[in-house]
Write a structure and sequence with these properties.
3 helices; 2,3-Dihydroxybiphenyl 1,2-Dioxygenase, domain 1; alpha+beta; globular; eight-stranded mixed sheet
């Protein structure tokens, strides 16, 4: 059901400065940038590598655009750092049902829109060893409605 690590989300206060660090130290460039009003973040995907099936593994930088966003609250309580890990799946609805059946709380009753139109759902960190976990269905196959 899970085909890859899609991305690792990093909460940051200054996306431009953090992206400059990843560029200078690791050579990672921004592959995609957008503002997600629903989630209250400005985000950038830094491509780490591509795969033979056309998918990529990324570092996702997340900067809050408003004080009430989940990322802003995370920064206030924990500071900058790893926010979540995301696993790729060809079927976010099916994967959500499978993990729910295994006893993991799925925080999104229905998939919602993620980066570039992907369909996403989050899993409760208390059920995942303290790690906020995201399920991601690539945008070409996604229908978050």
């Amino acid at each position: 059901m899970f085909t890859r690590i899609d991305h690792i989300g990093i909460a940051c206060r200054d996306l431009d400065a953090t992206a400059a660090f990843y560029r200078r130290v690791y050579g990672f460039e921004i592959a995609h940038e957008e503002v997600n009003e629903e989630q209250g973040v400005r985000e950038a995907m830094l491509e780490v590598n591509g795969t033979s099936d056309g998918h990529r593994t990324c570092i996702q930088l997340l900067e809050p655009i408003r004080a009430d966003s989940p990322v802003a609250k995370f920064l206030d309580s924990r500071g900058e750092g790893v926010h979540h890990i995301a696993f790729g799946t060809p079927d976010v609805r099916g994967a959500s049902a499978d993990v729910r059946e295994a006893g993991v709380r799925v925080l999104d009753a229905e998939p919602r829109r993620g980066t570039s139109g992907s369909a996403i759902a989050f899993l409760h960190p208390k059920d995942c060893g303290g790690v906020l976990t995201e399920l991601v269905q690539a945008p070409e196959a996604a229908d978050p409605t």
